[in-house]
Design goal:
By secondary structure, the chain is mainly alpha-helical. The chain contains 6 helices and no strands. The chain folds into 2 domains: 30 residues; 112 residues, Four Helix Bundle (Hemerythrin (Met), subunit A), CATH 1.20.120.10. Helix 2 runs antiparallel to helix 6. The radius of gyration is 20 Å and the shape is elongated.
């Protein structure tokens, strides 16, 4: 039995090492827009966890959503890959819709930050529900399949 456990340990170590070496290359495929959206998504997910429990860590949410606000501001200037492939009036219309949507996300983030400052969990839960709808429609509209 000791032999089997000893044989599994090197395999486990090699597997872990392989993951460590592969992970940086997987992240390298992320576009600048995906990087910014990842920051927003992390804050959104944390809000969702806290909203479901209805126990809020206002300081943590403030920190996450301050970063998310910066990411949102940067995202407005970036173009989703799906829109970049479009041309003419279709592209302009899609880009205008994307920017309006990102400005709405920015306003929702401002709402989260204001609710955190006021330590208002009721508004946080309502804002989370609103953001859930925004995320769903935005991803449907601007992310390629």
């Amino acid at each position: 039995m000791k032999t089997t456990k000893m044989m599994k340990l090197p395999s486990l170590i090699l597997s872990m090492l392989g993951l460590c070496l592969i992970a940086p290359f997987a992240a390298a495929d992320e576009t600048p827009l995906e990087e910014q959206m990842s920051t927003i998504s992390s804050a959104y997910k944390q809000l969702g966890r806290q909203a479901r429990r209805e126990k809020y860590d206002f300081d943590r949410l403030t920190s996450l959503f301050t970063e998310a606000k910066e990411a949102c501001d940067k995202s407005i200037e970036l173009v989703p890959a799906k829109i970049a492939k479009m041309t003419g009036a279709e592209k302009e219309k899609a880009l205008e819709g994307y920017k309006k949507g990102m400005m709405a996300v920015g306003k929702a983030i401002d709402g989260v930050l204001a609710s955190c400052k006021a330590e208002d969990g009721t508004n946080l839960k309502a804002t989370y529900e609103k953001m859930k709808e925004m995320k769903s429609s935005g991803h449907e509209e601007y992310i390629e399949d």
